[in-house]
Amino acid sequence: MAYSGSGRMAITPQSATLIALHGLSGDAFKTWTDKDNHLWLRDSLPEHIPNARIMTFGYDSALKNSTSRMTVLDFAQDLLIRLTIERQDPLEWERPIIFLCHSLGGIVAKQALIMSHIQDETYGTIVKSTTGMAFFGTPHRGSKTASTGRMLSRIVNAASLSRATIRSDLLKTLEISSQSLDHISRLSSQILSGMSIISFYEQKPLSSTGSLIVEQFSAILGFPNERAIPINSDHRGISRCSPRHPNLYLPVWSSLKEMVEKSLLESRGEYDEFMDKLFCVDYKTAQLRPRQPHHGTCDWIFHNPTFRDWLDSPQSAALLLSAPPGFGKTVLTRHVMEKVLAGEQMYSDGTCINLGVSFFCSYNDQISTSEQTVLRSLLHQLLQLHPRAQHVVCNGLLERKMLGLAYDFTPEKLWVAIRDVLSMDGMANTFICIDAIEELNTEDCHRIVAGFNDIVNNMNKTSKRTHRIRVFFSSRPSAQYRVNHPSMHILSVNRQHTEMDIRNYLRDSITEFCQTNAPFAEAMANRSPTSIIEKMTKRSDGMFLWATVAWENFCQHIFWNEDVLEERLLDLESTPPGINPLYNKLLDRIDPTYRKELWAFFAMIAVAKRPLSEAELSELLPVMVSQRDELTNPCQMRPFPKLLDIIEKHCRDFITVHDDGKILFCHLSFKEYLLQTWATDRPEILEKAKVSISKACLAYIKYWDSLTIQDGSWTSRIQLLDYAVSQYLSHLASLPSDHPLWITYAETADSGYFARDNTSPLHPLFTETFSRWISEKLMSIEKCHEVVRAVVSHGYDLNGKDKNTRGSILNFCCGGDGEGFKLTVPLLLDLGADPNLYPPGKDSNLKAALYKNHQDTAKVLLRHPKFDPNQTDRNGQSALHHLIGFSSDEAIFTLLENRVVEVNIQDRVGSTPLHLAVDRQRSEVVRRLLLAPHIRLDIIDKHGRTPLALATWWGLKQIALIIIERSEAFPIPENSHVSPLLSAAKHGEEEIVRVLLPKTRYKHIGRDLDESGKGFLHYATMNNWHDTIETCLMLSDINTDQIDHSGGTALHYGAKLGCTESCRALLKYEASTRLQDRNGRNAAQMAAEAGFKDTLELIVREGNVDANQRDHQGRNLVHWAATLDCLDVMQLICQQPGVDVARRDNSGKMPIAYAWSCQCPKVGRYLSLRMKYLATLSVPWKDPYNWDRVFEIATTQYMKAQLAAEEMRKASERAAQEETKKAAKLEERPRWEEAPDQYSDEQRRELSQAVPERMKLPWR
């Protein structure tokens, strides 16, 4: 371990530890140092990440002249030992570790983490402290260059006479498909899944080799928690972040800084589970599957005016790249995306774009690709770019379901989340790329384009107009885009755009072919390459794919001379333009001897639901070419060996092996050609492929089920098993409903695969299968029922043997959408399905049917002899609960008449059916339940409410009267229960109160309080029921001075609301006028504050009022009465002995000051007159207020308010008139554009100004 050449460092309060590991033939310092001797780990990184402890680890990884025999395992052990020494202080154990790994260094770091995990007692703190990994060109899956290098090392070692040789063992470790790399990757995958990972991959070939050292497929792990960032440098330069190229290495600085900040958060890892659930498809692999552009091509787009206008727009904008098939739009899209991520594309002001997310529809599983898939993948990438937004999005998508919290990934929620993330300040310069949106279904395509256009337009209208979001779509041409989205930039690719790229490609290809093929070079000696280039360019008609395929076909020749060259050129001239005729010609050239097998091969790849590996195809092809009608044991079909050699020899014009080992067509257009052309010309080939792959899937499922050992290891031992289990149903869907394989599918039930419990990791629920049959209309209802009968006849138990899956099929059909499910429920019941069984965590069968308003299905269940109406579901609800919630009165009455029903069952919240009927305001049902035998009215729910209390709680007057009328005995509530009387008074239902009071016999009326501490007397006073108050006070022992939580009595609230008669009744029974609430105010002060003169006068006349009693602000009754210009009331107050009219409150104000503030001249003059004769004043009183000006001031203020209101009205009218004029001009637009000659120049200019700039059409 070293840092700037020093030894052990003093431990300081640093934020994180960064450890740099060099690669093959690297050096602890030189690997990270550019040609200007700038060691960025020491000279630049501390500026971006202050207080970080940065170390570099060196090991002997030299290839040449090295006598070392240390392996990757030894390097990792040495790293752990040295790192443990550096971390001896306990303070170091809490400091997060981040590894920066170049090339082989990433393999060493992964091996070290594996060993740290295994040897937990010795090195466990290292793996626990590691929070992030940054890989710079690490060959996780090996390097093609290493394979070539190993071969050369053998030659050199064999010829060398010295002991120093080339390390072929290290090169072997880095080979493609290396067992060592595969072992390390598998063991480290679980460890790395909980960390932040950034993978930088090179984009420039090394000058000495002319090729990429580590290809993109190997440099990217493909984990959900990984960010893949291209760097426009070669394998050496990728680790040398020079300050001379700030934009080139900006992604490195920003992502490392972000990784360190995330590692220091206390909640790190809190949202990892959410990110894992959000991840749904491997979008990273799909991004790498398109070809990289040929050198010197595709750069024209960065100089295109439409592209530059879109990119340099000062606000957010969307661009659609529209190109016909074969024009290379996907390759162009990948090129644009990688240039943006590498920081090479900048706005006109020099701002760099380095935040980018993408989704390539063409290279993802077509079955799973949908609007939801695209949005989830884009949102996952956005949250990786901006981790601080994870908690906001997580909380927004988290919803409370019946079984607890769950994430809602519906498109509506995802759109809101994406909009919220893009609105954040850190995402102002985000680039969003969606390729081949036409591959989605039409509705999803239009929703995605419209959704992002709405986001862009809304941002430009709101405070986020400074954001510069860039949305890039690519699609085949469609006139709908321009019509539906007039504000979107559209770049239509034509032959003028691609012809220069085609010429460059052909020129380089001819030059390269001349260098590698001497006979061809000699044949070209007297011929200019321009003739070939121009012929191919002209016939391609701008289609880059045609030129590529034509050139590759042109080169397929062994012997070359001038005559052969001339023949090839003549043959080229006879090839018609267009990709389909070219494919026809290439297929016709296939040797008839091999044509049948190769066409079967093509058909199998075309109908497969995802790309297949060599092992999977080698197991499928024997089924395709076999003559057997039945396939009982697929392992008896021997796989075809060396399939890749066959591809190289016979199919290299059509098929390629991708870097991830998947076998694909060289061009997606060839798959489209096969599916479209062969569907009419050779339908039997495609049909056989569909049947063969469906047959194989079913055979593998049945065979796996028959094995005695069934565990996850079989998925690797039987290569096609995983594909069969995940895709069998989609293949069956492509077959007609009367195909015999459907019955074969039903026969699998006797082996127990679909009858087995849910313990198998490969077991798909039978309900999902049935759902696809019905919802996707894979077959008719009659045929579907035939399959179901066959399944049952072969041993499938509809009720399920396991508690986790019992009754799942019937339950699913009860709640399924569509007529087919309704018709299937009687069939399942006839076949023995138990109507009372349903899976744990699901709604009961009856509730599932009623929730979807399947009333006929509910009647079928209720009439079934085995149906138990008193069975409760997970919420404790019985059939009666469900019917009250969702069904008609007739159905409820029928159940009560025909079955023995327990009417007092309580659900999880304590509600009986009567409670639920009250809550749903079903008066007829309430009447019928009250007639049921043994009905109880004293049962309370978890909130302490009887059915009557519930009715009064919600103010349901009619329901409450029905219950009171039908019940003979009224249950008096306990202390903790809700009082119907109090609830009725709270809702102002005097009629209910008058009926209930005699039933209580006026006992315990004051005992019941609500949550605010108010009792019946409070609410009776607030409702001004003075007769009721007098009756209660006369017949009961209720306390007239009962206070609530705010200290208020009934008299307080009567005074505050001006309930004069209620206050009179309270005062008659000696209610106290001197009690103060929490603000220190008595009832008289409350009346004065509220401005009720009559109530205040009543309290002062009839109550024992202390006019000098002060509230918490120091004000007495004279202060409060001074705010009312009622002279008679003030005189009445001042007649009381000892009244102090000159008392100052806590703010030093006397009552006369409040009279002036409230513009009360009568009271003010009266107080001024009394104060002149007060002996208590130290200085004779002199009135400072001019009471004659009070009316003048009030009049002036009123006039000002009236003038302001009039100005606002006029401004509003002017704005409305302007909007009306603009709308009229916009309506006029079609006429002046269609017939401009009918309008004058002045009229056209005026109308043109009313039309947004992007909506204007050119004059013709």
UniProtKB/TrEMBL annotation:
Keywords: ANK repeat, Repeat. Residues 1210-1234, 1241-1260 have a biased composition (Basic and acidic residues). Pfam families: Ank_2, NPHP3_N. ANK repeats lie at residues 909-942, 1046-1078. PROSITE patterns: ANK_REP_REGION, ANK_REPEAT. Residues 1210-1260 are annotated as: Disordered. SMART domains: ANK. The keyword Ribosomal protein does not apply. Residues 296-476 form the Nephrocystin 3-like N-terminal domain. This is Nephrocystin 3-like N-terminal domain-containing protein. It comes from Fusarium sarcochroum.
